[in-house]
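Lecture notes, structural biology module. Today: joint structure prediction for complexes of two components.
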Amino acid sequence: NAGVTQTPKFQVLKTGQSMTLQCAQDMNHEYMSWYRQDPGMGLRLIHYSVGAGITDQGEVPNGYNVSRSTTEDFPLRLLSAAPSQTSVYFCASSSTSGGYNEQFFGPGTRLTVL
Amino acid sequence: AQSVTQLGSHVSVSEGALVLLRCNYSSSVPPYLFWYVQYPNQGLQLLLKYTSAATLVKGINGFEAEFKKSETSFHLTKPSAHMSDAAEYFCAVANTGNQFYFGTGTSLTVIP
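The predicted structure, tokenised, for the full assembly:
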């Protein structure tokens, strides 16, 4: 199993550009989520999905869109990048329900917006 | 609503000394609690988790944590620090909807 994979590893954008961060998992997990990690702020939940076709907002959803057409994939879209979106982005997945299942994290995407 | 507070953004210990990383949680229901470790330029890895079984939870690499309901704490300890323990550590609380709330992290430095 590859676990949770993310592409790209690094990305530099100019303000106003759009891009999609890719996330895929091969563990047949129902639950997937996106976090951003900023110094001194820990990880903050952007969006999450409890299954294909179902998504919901987390703590900091503004400026980001998600969709979940398959169980395996959960892309994160930045429609018009802003410098405030410079961050490290992590995708995670876990088995369905309970809250007692650990989340498995991808290696992260380091995004810089100029 | 759930939240987590990690006291001390930076902790330094000598090699072989006790490691103590503090975590206090706020939860309106019995919580699920986790400790994750992040090595430089990597994702997070699970160290251990509490899911209402034994209050003393043992994890990987010699770490353990004790759930204390009366103190709303879930502190992480290791009897003897090793150089390879240098990393950032995150405490997290989860609700039954699988939403995780992370603390701001504690950076552990191990001094040789």
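Point to remember: Chain A is about 0% helix and 50% strand.
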